[in-house]
Design brief:
One of its GO terms (biological process) is prenylcysteine catabolic process. Its cofactor is FAD. The protein is an alpha+beta fold. It folds into 2 domains: about 100 residues, no CATH class; about 100 residues, Alpha-Beta Plaits, CATH 3.30.70. The chain contains 5 helices and 10 strands. It is elongated, with a radius of gyration of 22 Å.
Length: about 210
């Protein structure tokens, strides 16, 4: 395997019993291999995750003005397909109440209300600014991150042929083989476990066959 690191651009090489390819093969993947070894790159959707501390503007959502969300451990506001696609003023795909260790405590020592929004840059180019001004009375931006979240998911007419393979070649495992059918944090955990099980099964079999 030949590789570089973030801290050193010098090309290095090493031999490994197993290599787990954990990075999704999206449009930004800088991975090369002999032709036919890797599955084709997939176009991933760009998503913004924005963490905000503050008081939600009740009127924007039709909530009673005296409604308090402090007692709620979790609350999710998810626009319907019609509410998002037809109403171009809806900036987020999801808005959820969360607990953040990055937010400063309130004056009385309590934990402030924290919210995370997921949005698309083609609808909301500056989520840190626009979410605070559009949906909060007093919103303080904690952090906004943009990343390639998931590919364009659609039914697979022939999964046995179009689904990716976990074992690309002996010793080379692709953890995101299911990305064409489903993509989530939970699936990432399952994929990592699958990779570990493959290595465990093969190494155990090799040890049993050893003289």
């Amino acid at each position: 395997l030949e590789y570089t690191t973030d801290s050193d651009s010098k090309l290095k090489s090493a031999e490994f019993d197993y290599v787990v390819l954990a990075h999704p093969l999206n449009q930004n993947a800088s991975i090369s291999a002999p032709k036919g070894l890797l599955p084709p790159l997939l176009e991933y959707k760009t998503v913004d995750s924005t963490l905000i501390s503050g008081e939600l503007d009740h009127e924007k959502f039709g909530f009673p003005s005296d409604e308090s969300f402090d007692r709620l451990k979790g609350l999710s506001i998810l626009p319907t397909k019609r509410g998002y696609e037809d109403d171009r003023n809806t900036l987020f795909k999801a808005l959820m109440k969360v607990r953040s260790v990055a937010a400063k405590e309130t004056e009385d020592g309590g934990a402030p209300s924290c919210w995370v929004t997921y949005s698309l840059p083609e609808r909301c180019l500056y989520p840190g600014q626009d979410m605070c001004s559009s949906y909060f009375k007093k919103g303080v931006l904690i952090r906004s991150s943009r990343w390639l979240a998931y590919p364009d998911l659609s039914p697979l007419p022939n999964p046995s042929r179009t689904m990716g393979k976990f074992i690309l070649s002996p010793g080379l495992i692709y953890a995101n083989a299911l990305e064409r059918a489903a993509c989530s944090m939970e699936l990432a955990v399952i994929s990592a476990r699958n990779a570990a099980l493959i290595i465990h099964t093969e190494t155990t079999a090799n040890q049993e066959q050893a003289p």
